[in-house]
Amino acid sequence: MEVLFNKAGMPLFAYGKQAMIVTKGTPTPTIATDTPTEDLSPINYNGKFIVRWGDLNNYPVIAEGYIRQSTVLNSGLKYKWMATIAQGIYAAQNTGVDADGNDIFVRINDLNLQRSLRDRKVFNYMLDAFRDIFKYGICFPELIFSGDGQTIDGINIINGRFCRLTRDKEFVAFSEKWEGMYACTAADIKYIPVLDQYDPYADLIRLRRAGRTKGKSYIYPLFNRFSNNVVYPLPDWDTARQAGWLDISQEVPNFIKNVYKNQASLTYIIRIPYSYWDRQFPLKDYSDVVERRTLITAALKKIEDTLIGSDNAKKTLITHFAVNELGKAEEKWDVEVLDDKFKSDQQLITSAAANSEILFSILVNPAVVGAMPSGGGPYASNSGGSNIREAFLVNSALAWVDQQHIAYPIEHMIKFNGASEDAEIRFKKTILTTLDTGAGIKQIS
Description:
Blueprint: E1 2-5, E2 11-15, E3 20-22, E4 42-45, E5 48-51, H1 59-69, H2 71-85, E6 89-97, E7 103-107, H3 111-117, H4 120-136, E8 138-145, E9 152-158, E10 163-165, E11 171-174, E12 190-193, H5 200-209, E13 217-219, E14 222-223, H6 238-243, H7 245-262, E15 268-271, H8 274-280, H9 289-307, E16 322-323, E17 329-330, E18 334-337, H10 344-361, H11 386-416, E19 423-427, E20 429-432, E21 441-444
Antiparallel strand pairs: 1-2, 2-3, 4-5, 6-7, 6-19, 8-9, 8-13, 8-14, 10-11, 11-12, 15-18, 16-17, 20-21
Helix pairs in contact: 2-4, 2-11, 4-11, 7-10
């Protein structure tokens, strides 16, 4: 008997030679062993106390494994990543409100400023920042200062997979050897100071006045504010992991693959009387029993070929039999059609439920990726597409929080470099509309 377990030890499916066992119902929420709670006991590296990220200090590796193995989580995060980045940014100034109470934003007429915001380095910063905040719940922007310390030359993201925080959150410890917790030595770690979390911009001004920005760089960490963890916030999708839905979504295809690989796919049982072969191939006619066996085997193969294959669908098999003096049938064939006990539709329903729960955890409506649980089933088609458009509009509206989160380091950078204190970073978006408005899309900011 083969049994498939999730990482928490919950049996999901079992299959043997004659039976298949499926666990029913919703899994009881369990906290996986790699991050049961925050472990604030630090690791001491020559007087620097670094907080573990997960029990084995390898939560990013665990996260990458789940994301890589779940097609729906990977695509859901990528959808949210692309939708939140939108169509770029620009600097604008709020000049008041219109008659409807909407803010009026006017682009700042500074070509150098607008050119710097369109720079590849700024765009790459946004790509990497949204990637890490969605995957890990935290990202580590690095503000890089000029040689004289008077301006910020650039903004960069240090790969969150290799970053850890000290207990006092004063430094980010960077090392590519965290994934082997005890393989990392003090010599493998680079420490980068962290800006004040309460008012990072004021901290930048203080550091410049104190002459502590010349040729330096500082980390401006951004956290998933919805998580109450003290040091490392959990990403939104981790709820689906702890509830067991990610395990189920991964085990369903494994189960189906193993069933197709190992099941005995019998469709018919055909019972043929021994007397039929005695009449068809009498023993007295064959001096060599091997010849008779070969002919019988060929006849059986012909019977099977008559029943299987798409070309033989609905084909009739005709047999003859005799009735004796007592009215009992003799030499009668019996063809039994076997019921297929493996119902793939049930597995698709389970998989669809898991996929929906995963998408719900990251606030992505399943409709935008083609899964519509209502109506005709979990993968029912949709002719109008209005639910997809509405889901996209909701995602665009909710993206403002994440966009503003990532925009703050850019705003502080341009203000530090001399832009107006009223400068704001705005995101350009494409909004889907209906054809009766005269256009299929509309661009807003």
